């Protein structure tokens, strides 16, 4: 859905709510951070755009091509993107990362979860192995099925494949790994093998994001005034189940949301992969519907036993309607990470109707019918909250006993599965193969190396600075170099250590894939973009 | 008779309709201290947690046990602890900055000593939050902290 078009077309049916001004064509919106994005100045000597709607507009206006300004179509994928278009998407992703994460850099270190270190190690893995798995998935399922499954997840609730942040991450987190490795001198941006990895980062993300957003042509929520909608069937389903709430029930609902969100974050090692929003859906006279998935029990993680013992569902799913007048809403943003931020900061005073569902099945090959969700009643909520809080406490007690290295590996495991290509393996039926044959969890030697370089402030100061100022985001060159430091240094050393390839880890390359590897053991499947016009049907 | 003295302010993820909570500040440095508290004390009423970072993980068990309020020395409402506190409705003041300018001046010269000094100003003191009357800022609310003497 194009938000600006929708509001323009339906203006007569909508009340004159203040927040709807965020869809006025010429608005700059509000500022959520005093910081400005320095990347375009550092790279090209241009200005420093702010966050929000004004920043989005500036980035679009100052792009070399119209790939971020216009609505992307299937024909853009069919003809193939130009180098300038790839770079415009990378620059936009750099600004978007600043927009979503810049204020987080002030949060310091955690005394229990070494997140900066596991993130750093995982980002490196993302960039080294992620593009190869992207190719593998598309080789196996084809572009059409790849895109259709992401499109279809708009019709379901409570699965990880729908999570906005997981899709955002296959672009941004993979490129964070590129930034880390370039910063540490492992290779140059014109390295031909690295250019291939960058293209296989951006292209699968663009197609996946295009599909996830219903083919409306926007690849980031920030391009569409910070919104993304579910399929109308989902909106109708939850709207029909809505119940009005008084202050007491809002409190109970908030307890459920808070407890589930806390466990979702803990289950995912202090990461937003555990919770994601869809919206703002404009309903009735301009009120807001938010549909929220909170992933409280991931059976692929060994520490999920704390949830399994208590029969905690795979996901707790909440839908709620906000009356914008009741909270004095001026702007509602669903960031590309799937997190809501509002001005004023607290949306709870506006919540007036809600419904709650539990989902026990992890992602399935076909969307699970909405009727299979279990509706949660008010009388059940206190027990569910108690169970969830008990699981969180037990998780904490377990983690407090773990070694530093164990926690880094667990966080790495989370990042390998969720905010990465891993999140789509289960619904595509490829998980077992990737786990057993392709050594999915294995840490590449260059990731292990980089772990030691995290010390000396690389992860906690240099990396955030290079990520969020935009200084570290490099362009794809028009003509890559003939030489490859990645081949000559990184891969050579990895192969000496017994690494078989970036796709297969330490496992032998299976015979069915051998003929698709080049002389550097880079996976090169024949995957033409042959998606028909009716791909959504 | 007790008096209330404004000792500093920080960033709150959400505005509250009423003033409060009140409680004695307890500082947590290690996970074991958190585990020890939640294993031995069922009700955390009357405790305001003080932690250094704005990350969520370290405070998770405190939040799960319904700690009435949190103060952090670092982080912003966009940090994970800020997001969780908003969702849970837990009053939270992030990147607490003392009113005493001689202390804030230390921030530039010796950051670790500054954090230690700020912690010592709060630890063991009875405080009250005012997240009702502060100004609305860029994505957060000015959270005021009073010491009850």
Summarize the structure.
The complex is a heterodimer of chains A (537) and B (149). Chain A is built from 19 helices and 8 strands.
Model description:
The complex is a heterodimer of chains A (537) and B (149). Chain A contains 19 helices and eight strands. Chain A is α+β, with helices and mostly antiparallel strands and 537 residues long. Chain A folds into two domains: 54-225 and 404-514, no CATH class; 232-400, no CATH class. In chain A, strands 1, 2, 3, 4, 7 and 8 form a six-stranded antiparallel beta sheet that branches. In chain A, strands 5-6 form a two-stranded antiparallel sheet. In chain A, a hairpin with a 3-residue loop joins strand 2 and strand 3 (287-295). The mean pLDDT of chain A is 94. With 149 residues, chain B is an alpha/beta fold. Chain B has one domain (4-148): Phosphohistidine domain (Glucose Oxidase, domain 1, 3-Layer(bba) Sandwich). Helices cover 30% and strands 30% of the residues of chain B. Chain B has helices at 31-40, 60-64, 80-88, 101-104, 106-109, 111-122; strands at 4-12, 22-27, 47-51, 69-72, 92-98, 126-130, 141-148. A seven-stranded mixed beta barrel of chain B has the order 1-5-4-3-2-6-7. In chain B, helix 1 (31-40) links the parallel strand 2 and strand 3. The longest helix of chain B is centred in the C-terminal third of the chain and has 12 residues, at 111-122. Chain B starts with a strand and ends with a strand. The chains are: A alpha+beta (537), B alpha/beta (149). At the A-B interface, helix 10 and helix 13 of A face helix 1, helix 2 and helix 3 of B.
